[in-house]
Specification:
This protein is an alpha/beta fold. It is built from 12 helices and 10 strands. Helix 1 links the parallel strand 2 and strand 3. The longest helix has 18 residues. The structure holds ligand T3D.
Length: 267
């Protein structure tokens, strides 16, 4: 793993901490590669039942490291692997976004501070967003003459509708945590002094739930926007067949009938 990404697994929760605080956790090659690898590892590890992505210091992430973009433009192949914008997105960012959407475990963005550019996209790609009161969200791509990427053109219109999403993308308006909450972009906002404890409690609660059913729910909701109601009903029935054979379904059923708290194993 890289110095620019902290990885800690405890109590079923893998916490991935973007760790370039002097650059507001902007992404360079090492951080992108480490994040993709850590997500893959967390997906494979049966002991991990919830993934949290957060940032070190005062930012969540300021998106692509613009120093590296300048270096690339000036021909420093080492800075971004000598790649085109397209290749850089395809090989660097897109695998991270795909990994978040495809891992069948809940992924929480713990947005501790500013999330800008691809940093905002990363937060939007997660299943849930918990924000500190000092968090903010900026579609800052337009400020540097770029197009929203890493999924923002897909996630934002779905969450907000075209007009609001387009406005944010073309104005780079900075949304406060309270704004984001009122728009439904974040699930919860916590005071700064309680943020870490609240995130830990929220993640621990998710990790103790029936992970298999949660993963299948994610699979169904990922697919639903492309389906008709008939297709969605059929897909739900197919996934329920799988969930219905899980150990956690048996445990949930037994616990209900025995009037006790279930102890889900994630299987
Ligand atoms: O091929 C490809 O990779 C294309 C992919 C593009 C994806 C993208 O993400 S494009 C968008 C890139 N991100 C941005 O445009 C955001 C740039 N940053 C900002 O607008 C501001 O820094 C913030 C609004 C995020 C925060 O503002 P503020 O006033 O709180 O902090 P600051 O003073 O601007 O920044 C603090 C330091 O972080 C500063 O360094 P210094 O002066 O203390 O040495 C600043 O240069 C550095 N920093 C902030 N963002 C980036 C960065 N360094 C490199 N890259 C950054 N993105």
């Amino acid at each position: 793993m890289s110095d620019s990404l902290g990885v800690e697994t405890a109590g079923g929760v893998a916490t991935l901490t973007l760790n370039r605080p002097d650059k507001l956790n902007a992404f360079d090659e090492a951080l992108l590669g480490a994040l993709a690898a850590a997500l893959k590892q967390a997906a494979r590890d049966a002991a991990v039942r919830c993934i949290v992505i957060t940032g070190a210091g005062r930012a969540f992430s300021a998106g692509q490291d613009l120093g590296a973009v300048r270096a690339r433009a000036e021909g420093d192949a080492a800075a971004t692997g000598g790649m085109s914008f397209r290749a850089h997105l395809e090989q660097g960012y897109n695998p991270v976004i795909r990994a978040i959407r495809s891992v069948e475990k809940p992924v929480v963005a713990a947005v501790n501070g500013v999330a800008a550019g691809a940093g905002a996209s990363l937060a939007l790609a997660c299943d849930l967003r918990l924000a500190s009161e000092r968090a903010s969200f900026i579609q800052s791509f337009v400020n540097v003459g770029l197009v929203p990427d890493s999924g923002s053109t897909w996630f934002l219109p779905q969450m907000l509708g075209f007009a609001r999403a387009f406005e944010l993308a073309v104005t780079a308006e900075r949304l406060s945590a309270a704004d984001a909450l009122s728009l439904g972009l974040v699930n919860r906002v916590y005071p700064e002094d309680r943020f870490q404890a609240e995130v830990a409690a929220y993640a621990a609660d998710l990790a103790a739930r029936p992970t298999r059913a949660i993963g299948l729910t994610k699979r169904a909701m990922n697919r639903a926007p492309g389906l008709s109601l008939d297709q969605a009903l059929a897909y739900e029935a197919q996934l329920q067949e799988i969930a219905g054979r899980s150990a956690d379904h048996g445990e949930g059923l037994a616990a209900f009938l025995e009037k006790r708290t279930p102890r889900f194993s994630g299987r």
